[in-house]
Design goal:
CATH superfamily of the largest domain: Jelly Rolls
Distance between the termini: 39 Å
Number of strands: 9
CATH architecture of the largest domain: Sandwich
Shape: globular
Helix content: 40-55%
CATH class of the largest domain: Mainly Beta
CATH topology of the largest domain: Jelly Rolls
Number of helices: 12
Largest sheet: 9 strands, antiparallel
Radius of gyration: 22 Å
Strand content: 15-25%
Number of domains: 2
């Protein structure tokens, strides 16, 4: 589903829609205002970017979402009942985890306009990688780890929302899938989780030159596909931490930066071979290789090749 729009002033219709799109829940109107619900959804890869505008105080009691659900409040307030921390209130400018994926949730939306960003928890393992014990990554809190992290998360969500609304970005494009990975990486970096950030002794032992060589071979043969660090690690039979450490030790870079460099080269070669007369554009070629932001692509391209990508295309 690329996009979805819902608009209703009927509480029963709104409840039926929320049950169908999110999870089984019951809702009620705890204010004297009439019911007014406006919801817009855009899909970006594995992520649903929802903008909800509720013009009344909606009480809710819901089953588990089975999704990571981040919220960013623009107006109004959301009062969420957390089992481990009691009631917490999200006010305008606040961002965080609305509910753990595997727990029922309840609370009150008080005439709020807010963004809800939803994705499968497995995306965190795809980016962060499971531990050697194969335990799933869990959230240990619902607020970002500090104020700076909250700002980074809010900026990332705003940028991804713009990307999801771009009609030129298809849901299954490399841009969309790499954006999904980017979101998971930002969440792991800014939210409190059980994801291990420091390599163990085993990780360090596995971070040898052969791991780096295997990783490079896998990346080079799959560069046109949607691959993650977890995929690379699985192909090398080591953990994601071992792959990351191997790249730092032997290549003085990261797997993500290495993939970006290869994709930049692939875009360069395509620009050299393409012709504007055939309908090719810098933006279309950049997006085909996972570069969502034309301005940033142009900067990276000029830094690598000494000229603008348009010059290469028109040369």
């Amino acid at each position: 589903m690329r996009s979805l729009i819902f608009d209703s002033d009927d509480l029963g219709v709104t409840e039926e829609f929320l049950n169908r799109v999110y999870t089984k829940m019951s809702i009620g109107n705890d204010s004297e205002n009439g019911v007014s619900t406006r919801i817009r959804r855009n899909t970006l890869g594995q992520v649903n970017m929802d903008l909800l505008n509720l013009g009344f105080s909606m009480r809710y009691d819901a089953d588990p979402l089975e999704k990571v659900c981040l919220c960013a409040v623009e107006t109004g307030a959301i009062e969420e009942n957390y089992r481990d921390a009691g009631v917490d209130v999200f006010l305008p400018g606040d961002v965080g985890l609305l509910t753990p994926p595997d727990l029922p949730y309840s609370g009150m939306v008080r005439s709020a306009r807010y963004r809800a960003v939803l994705f499968d928890p497995e995306l965190l393992e795809r980016v962060g990688g499971p531990s050697r014990e194969h335990t799933k990554i869990q959230f240990t809190g619902h607020r970002p780890v500090n104020a700076a992290a909250a700002k980074r998360l809010a900026r990332a969500l705003a940028h991804l929302d713009q990307l999801a609304a771009d009609p030129e970005v298809t849901p299954d494009s490399l841009v969309a899938t790499t954006a999904s990975d980017y979101l998971a990486a930002i969440v792991l970096d800014t939210m409190p989780t059980t994801a291990r950030t420091e390599p163990t002794a085993v990780d360090r032992c596995d971070a040898h030159g052969e791991t780096a060589r295997r990783a490079i071979a896998y990346i080079e043969t799959h560069i046109h596909q949607d691959i993650s660090i977890a995929d690379i690690a699985a192909a090398c039979f080591v953990t994601t931490r071992s792959v990351q450490l191997a790249f730092r030790r032997h290549l003085n870079t990261t797997p993500t930066a290495y993939m970006k460099r290869l994709r930049l080269y692939a875009a360069h070669e395509e620009l050299r071979a393409a012709s504007p007369a055939d309908g090719h554009t810098v933006t279309s070629i950049a997006q085909r290789w996972g570069f969502a932001h034309p301005g940033r692509f142009a900067i990276a391209y000029r830094r690598a090749y000494g000229q603008a990508p348009s010059t290469t295309l028109n040369g």
